[in-house]
Amino acid sequence: MQLSFYSSRIHELLNLQHQLLSAFSQSYPQANDFTHLLNFPRSGILVVDGQRWTFAKHGLGLRFEREEPVPHLVVDMHDKFGDCAKVDWWRLTLFLESMGIATQGADAERAVLEHNRRTQ
User: What are the residue boundaries of the DUF6896 domain, all occurrences included (predicted)?
Assistant: First the structure.
């Protein structure tokens, strides 16, 4: 796949991360330990732009899954949860696979490196 394809998907992922973080922060204002997530709920539900998302805490991050509408997108902010501008090959790969787009880790990694080069 071409880098322009990945670039548009990276921007889509970053936009969703921003929306999800904003909705989470509004719904759970007491969750303010962004380093260890100690006071974060283990799981929950958010509604973002009329879309129903569930989340589950794991490790130092949260995994969001869109329940409605289909497809069931996955946004896995697995580390540095408070940084909605962070993207890495793992986040991108899971997001693309949840859209039904098969990708190789090496391709996702190259796309993220190119994105980071352009945005620095």
Answer: 10-100
